[in-house]
Design a protein that fits this description.
Helices cover about 30% and strands about 20% of the residues. The protein is an alpha/beta fold. The structure holds 1-deoxynojirimycin.
């Protein structure tokens, strides 16, 4: 630091220690430039919130913004100014372990979550002592990895890149995100750390973004195994020309750029541009005004893991669970049953509840599902725990005890799924079934004859058709953070009615992947009566649970949607109204969803695309009218020439409580429109 060789740190935190290092930089280095302290603050710093995929299942942008805000308050109190979040990668392949870090499969929901998280981390003033510079990552199409294998190539059409993978980045940029991280993968033959067309061309030129582009871990040096650079010097030259400002870890810049400038391979201007962007970020963070602003030991003590933060984490966790099945109203359970059997290794796992990116989170602070249940029930209720089986492996020796516990109980809570280290980076799985002998355990426990509630803990959708057919109540709980246990108990015992909706399609079998609701039509739509249509011989073509699906303890009824007009010009707006009624006997939240289909166009269009959603609370019997406004932007698509257009013709509006449970209305666009300039057709890699 004294020699001026360090500009930023990753993984160094603590108010006192960062203050100490900052003092060396500011007082003893030649240029006195303050350091940046960065960390992966993904879903909480010390108070851990639900994993991002779970938070997306809340469809509650205000709550997600609050979650990121609290993470920023705690992280900045520990001396940090920069987080490598939000991850805004669209993921349509649940084999990919990093699906847990994003908002799921849909670009519209993904963009809404990206905006919320950037706002939460950065607040309205980046120079405030409690705001963190956010990083939209991983640019771009990292989630399109072939085979769902982490770090693998993405090979996709320009239309898919622009319409599916880039919108959440655009939303983050429009929300003012301070930095963007390049992704490990290549896009259509060009590794992202060398992809000047997308970094310089799209992000900087087309979108006018002036923030810091940081490499991913060793990403610059990895241009060598990618096969586009022969040595570290070539890699550094490619990356600086692509617009990568900060070299995370690889040291290629430090080792090679001075010589590259002397040789004329890299201009001083390219270096100055990168340096200017980093300095600008340090100015925006207020570090030149007060380099110690973020390193405040008092704030660190009083603003970390507070009761308010824990309460917010519990509220977020409640909203993030998705009730998948509830036959005969098995849930909610009474708090005064005489015996509840809790079965499964994950029920007592306080590490897994934190998810795979827990920053400064500690298992010792977290409440597991078993303890959450124990705390919630009446003193007279006996909670009997049996491990049953580990998450992985073939050991069935715990089955007998689990069956005994089930037989002696009034109800069984069976916790199944994956440990948190089975999701996240480098945690792809070729099968998305329940690992180990957990399905066999479920079969034995169900056969004991008592009512069974299955909780699915996972960072990805799991294909569990047997459970869906045989277990009367199923709750997707994901990894919910420090307050997981109490939040799960809130749902199990009915203190809160489930309200989450799936941000991702749940397949029946791994072989259906990729399966997503906004798929293209085909010339041979599936039909049971015609073999020669698009489907499988061995499993139905439909998902186990569709995107947007989720039950509550009450029920909702939708009236047919009403449109403000039946024809519109592309410059007009169209208002869609729908009456939603709570038809059950208790209050609940519903996420009202609006989808659009362009019926006939010059290129094929998805069967439906999300274009609006609203979370609404309804008392029993209450009806609310929800309004959505559609504009040209909601109807537009990239045509054969990469021109974003609205074409005249008929459109279908679909409104309902999931992508597969909607009612339709129709309107006609009378004239077309072009939105913005056409992109060159080789837009797969160039703007
Ligand atoms: C590699 C991951 O891909 C990235 O998301 C993360 O921010 C960096 N490591 C730093 O930990």
């Amino acid at each position: 630091i004294r020699a001026g060789a360090v500009g930023s740190f990753l993984g160094v935190a603590g108010a006192a220690y960062t203050r100490h290092l900052q003092r060396i930089a500011v007082e003893q280095s030649r240029l006195h430039i303050p350091l940046l302290f960065a960390h992966d603050v993904i879903h909480g710093y010390r108070t851990i919130f639900p994993v991002p995929l779970a938070e997306a299942a809340s469809w509650d942008t205000a709550a997600v913004e609050r979650s990121a805000r609290i993470a920023a308050v705690e992280a900045t109190a520990a001396g940090l100014q920069w987080t490598f979040a939000p991850m805004v990668d669209i993921a349509r392949d649940p084999r990919w372990g990093r699906i847990v870090e994003g908002a799921g499969e849909d670009p519209y929901l993904g963009a809404a979550m990206a905006r919320a998280r950037v706002r939460g981390f950065q607040g309205t003033d980046l120079s405030a002592a409690n705001t963190l510079m956010a990083t939209a990552k991983h640019f771009a199409a990292y989630g399109a990895a072939v085979g769902g294998r982490d770090y693998a190539a993405a090979d996709l059409s320009p239309q898919t890149l622009y319409a599916v993978y880039l919108p959440p980045f655009r939303a983050a940029v429009e929300a003012g995100v301070g930095s963007v991280m390049a992704s490990f993968n290549e896009v259509n033959g060009v590794p992202m750390h060398a992809n000047g067309a997308l970094i310089g061309g799209v992000l900087r030129e087309a979108w006018g973004w002036d923030g810091v582009l940081v490499s991913d871990w060793n990403g610059i040096a990895e241009l060598i195994p990618h096969g586009v650079a022969a040595n570290p010097a070539d890699a550094a030259v490619l990356a600086i020309h692509a617009g990568v400002d900060v070299d995370m870890v690889s040291t290629s810049y430090r080792a090679a750029l001075p010589a590259a400038v002397r040789d004329g391979r890299v201009s001083m201007r390219a270096i100055d541009d990168a340096v200017r962007r980093v300095l600008r970020a340090k100015y925006r963070l207020g570090l030149f005004e007060d380099p110690y602003r973020y390193s405040d030991t008092v704030r660190e003590r009083v603003q970390t893991l507070t009761p308010e933060h824990r309460a917010a984490a519990r509220a977020m966790a409640r909203e993030s669970m998705v009730l998948l099945r509830n036959e005969h109203g098995l849930l909610p359970l009474s708090k005064s049953l005489s015996t509840i059997a809790v079965i499964g290794a994950l029920a007592a796992d306080t590490a897994s509840v934190l998810g795979p990116w827990a920053a400064a989170g500690r298992a010792a602070d977290a409440v597991c599902v078993l303890d959450g249940i124990r705390r919630a029930v009446s003193p007279a209720t006996r909670v009997r725990y049996a491990r049953g089986a580990e998450v992985e492996g073939s050991d069935t020796s715990g089955f007998a005890e689990a069956v005994r516990a089930a037989r002696e109980a009034d109800v069984v809570v069976l916790v199944l799924g994956e440990r948190s280290d089975m999701s996240g980076e480098a945690s792809s799985r070729a099968s998305i079934q329940l690992p180990g002998v957990q399905r066999e355990l479920a079969q034995r426990v169900v056969a004991a004859g008592k009512p069974v509630v299955a909780l699915l803990m996972s960072g990805r959708p799991l294909a569990t058709p047997w459970l869906a057919a045989h277990v009367p109540a199923i709750l997707e709980t994901w990894f919910l953070g420090t307050e997981m246990g109490p939040a799960v108990a809130d749902i199990l015992f009915g203190d809160y009615a489930p309200s989450g909706k799936l941000p991702v399609t749940v397949p029946r079998a791994t072989g259906q992947v990729p399966i997503y609701y906004a798929h293209k039509p085909t010339g041979r739509p599936p039909s049971d009566s015609n073999r020669y249509t698009t489907k499988y011989l061995d499993v139905p073509w439909t998902p186990l649970y569709p995107f947007g699906y989720g039950l509550s303890y009450t029920t909702f009824a939708y009236a047919p949607p009403r449109l403000s007009r039946s024809t519109m010009r592309a410059t007009d707006t169209l208002v869609v109204q729908v009456d939603v009624r709570n038809t059950g006997s208790r209050a609940g939240d519903e996420v009202v969803q609006l989808y659009v289909r362009d019926d006939v166009a010059s290129v094929t269009r998805p069967v439906e695309e999300l274009r609006g959603f609203r979370r609404v609370t309804l008392a029993p019997g209450e009806t609310k009218t929800i309004s959505f406004t559609l504009r040209a932007d909601d109807l537009a698509f990239y045509d054969r020439n990469m021109q974003r257009v609205v074409e005249p013709g008929t459109f279908t509006v679909l409104v309902g409580g999931s992508s597969a449970d909607v009612q339709a209305a129709h309107f006609t666009v009378t004239d077309g429109a072009r939105l913005g300039p056409a992109l060159p057709v080789r837009a797969g890699s160039a703007p």
